[in-house]
Design a protein that fits this description.
Layout (H helix, E strand, L loop, with lengths): L8 H9 L11 H13 L3 H15 L4 H17 L3 H13 L5 H13 L2 H5 L4 E8 L2 E9 L5 E6 L1 E2 L4 H4 L3 E2 L2 E7 L3 E5 L9 E6 L2 E6 L17 E7 L4
Antiparallel strand pairs: 1-2, 1-10, 2-3, 3-6, 4-5, 6-7, 7-8, 8-9, 9-10
């Protein structure tokens, strides 16, 4: 099909600060689509993905058709790059926005065929993402602790409106031991107050994170930061 019109903190900031080509060549959604499509056709998939992320930022609050185009560009480019988990994550953003055009339906089938769901769902360990807007993701890494249990590391992000110029508006960092049965777990040894519970409910490749919102409970990050929300697993191993 032809395309038409955590992240570790350092990696996140470097990625946002990087450019696909000269900024003036990707200043509008149309230009970013052209730059990304050219890179895609040349097999430069990572550069295509970067351009399509910039395209998405320029249409995210605008026309639904343009939003669907940008998201489908990202789905397809990630599939071709071998980033099947990321393709599924971008598909989830499209579905969350109630997008159901022909390209989205086609990619729904393609992602389902390419994704090794059983391998991703076999263990809690892995890399999970929660969409923060502006083509930016909050990250949850779950790793084995060597004693039969698991360790969680959250890197929540609040994107803000000018993430390309200044980086995310707020960042956070929270980690601790996971206690539970790999389906229902809670965070311990995270430096939170006694009343600041964080729970993880896992089903397949998704994790729902619940937390208490109270004074002092979100001191692990900047203004508006939270680890709560729905995460999707994109890789079987944390980075």
């Amino acid at each position: 099909m032809l395309i038409r019109q955590k992240l570790p903190l350092l990696a996140l900031l470097l990625g946002l600060a990087g450019t696909v080509q000269a900024t003036e060549e990707c200043a509008t959604a149309v230009q970013c689509n052209q730059v990304g499509s050219a890179a895609y056709q040349d097999g430069r998939f990572e550069q295509a993905i970067e351009a399509f992320e910039r395209q998405l930022r320029r249409v995210e609050e605008g026309d639904t058709a343009q939003l669907e185009l940008a998201l489908n560009n990202l789905i397809l480019a990630n599939l071709r790059a071998g980033n099947t988990g990321m393709a599924r994550a971008w598909l989830g953003v499209a579905l969350h926005n109630n997008l159901s055009g022909s390209s989205t339906r086609l990619h729904l089938r393609k992602v389902a065929e390419a994704l090794d769901y059983q391998a991703l769902a076999a263990s809690p360990a892995g890399r999970y993402l929660r969409y923060a807007g502006q083509a930016v993701w909050s990250e949850l890494l779950i790793s084995e602790d060597g004693n039969g249990g698991y360790h969680a590391s959250f890197s929540p992000v609040r994107a803000g409106a000018r993430v390309e110029e200044y980086g995310p508006a707020a960042l956070g960092e929270l980690e601790g031991k996971l206690v539970g049965d790999a389906v229902q777990m809670h965070l311990e040894d995270a430096g939170l107050g006694a009343d600041c519970a964080v729970q993880l409910l896992r089903e397949g490749i998704t994790v729902q994170v619940l937390e208490v919102f109270a004074d002092g409970c979100q001191d692990y990050g900047g203004m508006g930061i939270s680890v709560a929300g729905d995460y999707i697993k994109v890789a079987a191993r944390p980075r």
